[in-house]
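> call design_seq(struct)
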């Protein structure tokens, strides 16, 4: 076993994956080698997720498995959201953890490893400072995660929104935007390395630049990126906040061909009373008006606007009538993509006094009903693309079938386009859609007949 090797497990969302890849960059710069098997690694790292209960349990499970199989001389470090939120509790529940590193100081991973190697520690080493430099003190790393010819680029970290159910501000702190020039340089580097799709992420992308004194900061950032990196094919925006999709942002998205006509805007619910208890924007008329405005802005474009959202069912106090209001809203609005989550009780959030009064079987029943409704809507929308031609970013080939994504499909969370024949991986090719399923499309290269 080489002490200068590491094995890193990344759990949770794409934002966490960016932190994981940034830690890997720092270790590699220090002479470490990334290995695929835990048994080969001198350092084992789990970048945990602690956002909701199931994610917390998954993180503990992975840590326990690695701790159980840990060999003499190996170090096990728990990093990320779970450790930032629960601190000492993590090591108490998983004997064998050598170091605990919070998500706010991921950039100190090399120092933590060095300290563990240089100084004997009879107990766990805790490195959990709540430094205000998160988002800027980044150790000369690219704040990106690359998968094939797509890349997530983190434009900000933390969140200042008051959502009652969410622990992110407790974990990450308030929103801190990264400098535009830094983001532009990273986008240029990604382009030079063959990236075709740039996915902008943050806890709330529409809050980008607030702490920098920018008005309409996300629109400004998109204008700058499309001007300074004009040959980067696709730019996708994730995690917009209701009430902050401005007219300028809509205009920029509709007028810049590089920006995909796709927006992820987590609404969480559609009943004003439920939204008020969630401490979320509860003006549903704004939602209707803004979605109509966005769809109108794209109606004369080659591709119509695709909208993804997420909802929570079983929030404390959600009545049958409130849930029905959500069902009616989904049926009326007809989103391209919907993710649905059952409410997870999280201690320390401002919803804690509400408890978790909705029975688990009621949550399950509502989740199933909403998913069934959306599945039918998704199928109908997908069927409307049959006979049309979509550009598809090819990501792989399996048994003579090429697999890719259209502008409507963000990686991992949305659908795929399955294309007959072997197409060049990493290229964007026109595909004529020949069939539709609830989530995926099928097609043939556009030069071929249906």
């Amino acid at each position: 076993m080489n002490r200068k090797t590491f094995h890193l497990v990344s759990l949770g969302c794409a934002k966490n994956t960016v932190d994981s890849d940034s830690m890997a960059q720092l270790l590699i710069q220090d002479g470490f080698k990334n290995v695929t098997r835990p048994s080969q690694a001198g350092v084992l790292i789990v970048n945990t997720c602690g956002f909701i209960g199931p994610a917390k349990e998954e993180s503990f499970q992975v840590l326990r498995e690695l701790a159980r199989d840990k060999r003499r001389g190996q170090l096990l470090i728990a990093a990320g959201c779970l450790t930032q939120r629960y601190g000492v509790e993590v090591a108490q529940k998983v004997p064998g953890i050598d170091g605990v590193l919070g998500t706010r100081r991921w950039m100190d991973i090399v120092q933590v490893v060095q300290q563990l190697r240089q100084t004997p520690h009879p107990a766990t080493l805790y490195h959990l400072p709540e430094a205000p430099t998160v988002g800027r003190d980044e150790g000369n790393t690219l704040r990106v995660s690359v998968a094939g010819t797509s890349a997530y680029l983190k434009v900000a970290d933390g969140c200042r929104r008051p959502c009652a159910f969410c622990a992110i501000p407790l974990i990450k702190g308030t929103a801190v935007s990264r400098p535009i020039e830094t983001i532009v340089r990273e986008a240029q580097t990604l382009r030079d390395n063959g990236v075709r799709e740039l996915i902008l992420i943050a806890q709330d992308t529409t809050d980008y630049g607030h702490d920098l004194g920018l008005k309409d900061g996300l629109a400004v950032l998109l204008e700058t990126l499309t001007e300074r990196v004009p040959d980067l094919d696709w730019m996708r925006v994730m995690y917009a906040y209701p009430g902050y999709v401005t007219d300028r942002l809509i205009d920029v998205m509709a007028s810049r061909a590089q920006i995909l006509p796709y927006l992820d805007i987590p609404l969480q619910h559609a009943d004003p009373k439920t939204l008020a208890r969630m401490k979320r924007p509860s003006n549903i008329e704004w939602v209707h008006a803004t979605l109509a405005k966005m769809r109108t802005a794209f109606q004369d474009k080659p591709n119509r606007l695709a909208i993804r959202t997420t909802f929570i069912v079983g929030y404390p106090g959600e009545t049958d009538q409130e849930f029905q209001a959500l069902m009616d809203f989904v049926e009326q609005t007809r989103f391209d993509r919907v993710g649905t989550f059952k409410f997870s009780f999280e201690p320390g959030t401002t919803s804690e006094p509400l408890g978790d009064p909705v029975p688990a079987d009621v949550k399950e029943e509502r989740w199933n009903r909403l998913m069934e409704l959306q599945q039918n809507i998704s199928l109908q929308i997908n069927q409307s693309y049959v006979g049309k031609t979509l550009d598809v970013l090819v990501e792989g080939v399996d048994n003579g079938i090429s697999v890719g994504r259209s502008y409507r499909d963000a990686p991992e969370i949305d659908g795929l386009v399955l294309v007959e024949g072997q197409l060049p991986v990493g290229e964007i090719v026109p595909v004529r859609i020949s069939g539709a399923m609830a989530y995926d499309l099928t097609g043939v290269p556009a030069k071929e007949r249906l």
